[in-house]
Amino acid sequence: MAEIALYVDPVCPFAWVTARWLLTSAGDRHTVTLEQLSLAVLNEGRSPDDAGQRAMLTRSQRIGRVFAAAVRSAGPGAFTPLYLSTGTRLHPRGPDLDDESAVAAALAEAGFDRALVDALDDPGYDAEVAAAHRASQTALGGPGGSPIITVDGHGFAGPVLTAPPAPNRATQLLDALVTVATAPEFAALQRPYDGPPKLG
Known about the structure:
200 residues; alpha+beta; 7 helices; 4 strands
């Protein structure tokens, strides 16, 4: 059994694909926790390349605050249920999706006070988002985006999935990941990919 932590930004569609695969494939063979990462914090001080990226970073900042508010209110265990309820509304993201309505519905579904939606525009939660992000970077050992994974304390950028694996391959993929992640000599493996992912 491996101890696995996956650090995700709730607005990242690649992380959403990875998280669903990981939670489904781990079953009771591995312990999986989801933790917060912030693409907005990661990109502080940088000028986004286009309007789409600027919008995504704004969503990262605002929605990240709601997750910090939920964790402050209910403890670390609040992250995963809120992530799952929010993710079904954010991914795929339609052009007319309203963040406030989506987050309010997700809070209600996950059993949180709907008033936490006010955290979207409350910079009082920014320090907690930044602290969670720093923890993700410490886990990796350097700067990295969403997602970041640790397996028995060994941190890696990714895994990035461009689509959910076929059911007969999903568990095999996790077994392979655990094997390479726990090999002391293994450092990195990556190939080019395009987005957004196919959410399946």
